[in-house]
Design goal:
Number of strands: 4
Structural class: mainly alpha
Shape: globular
Strand order of the largest sheet: 1-2
Low-confidence stretches: none
Distance between the termini: 42 Å
Radius of gyration: 17 Å
Length: about 220
């Protein structure tokens, strides 16, 4: 799952708007921010298999980011940082943690069996990646519903709604581009490209959520 993860960020912003959108957006992909860094560092491992349907990723070893124990630690850390560092209310900080954990649940739907339940235990994954069209429909559908919720929240605040439509369109385009472009190169290069895309989306979320300066 790629842009489908951002659905949790937009939904969280609609439900609890007191945390900035960019914090929810980073939270939704925080596990993959860590994964990208650890792949570049050689700590977690993957290889590419172009013969696979959907995603060509063969995720060999991800105990620190995509195991269930890891998926429980990252949300706790994120909630603490949001509460202390961003000084958002406790409910909003908790929501940031929930969004971080949603990443693992989304991956459970689409990944092949590569998510470790516990050290030395089985790996799980429902493998929706093997069915590319339904998988894409799911991602864009979740994103579309959450964008509608965020639009309604902005409208209730008396703010412009076009940023929600623009952000959704940009993410949908990013999804199509990620599918259309060939997956090639070294694991480190792939992880670096992924990390760059996460940074760009987070910057876009910051821009879309900015309130106009009062004059």
């Amino acid at each position: 799952m790629f842009v489908g993860h951002y659905a949790a960020a937009l939904a969280a912003k609609a439900v609890e708007p007191r945390a900035p959108l960019w914090s929810y957006v980073v939270a939704s992909q925080l596990v993959d921010w860590g994964w990208s860094g650890l792949v570049i560092a050689g700590v977690e491992r993957l290889r590419l298999d172009p013969s696979l349907p959907g995603s060509h990723l063969v995720l060999l070893d991800m105990p620190w980011t995509h195991s269930l124990p890891g998926a429980l630690v990252w949300p706790l850390a994120a909630a603490v940082v949001a509460r202390i560092g961003l000084r958002v209310p406790a409910v909003a900080a908790t929501m940031v943690g929930v969004v971080v954990f949603s990443h693992w649940l989304g991956d459970l739907l689409v990944h092949r069996a590569d998510l470790l339940l516990y050290p030395g235990g089985p790996k799980v994954g429902l493998a929706l990646w093997n069915y590319p069209l339904p998988e894409m429909i799911l991602e864009l559908g979740l994103l579309g519903v959450s964008a509608i919720l965020w639009t309604a929240q902005r409208k209730a605040e008396g703010r412009h709604t076009w940023p929600a439509a623009l952000f959704f369109a940009a993410l949908a385009m990013l999804q199509f581009v990620s599918v259309a472009l060939p997956t090639e190169g070294t694991p480190e290069r792939l992880a670096g490209t992924a990390l760059l895309s996460y940074v760009v989306v987070a910057l876009g979320a910051w821009l879309m959520d900015r309130k106009p300066v009062q004059t």
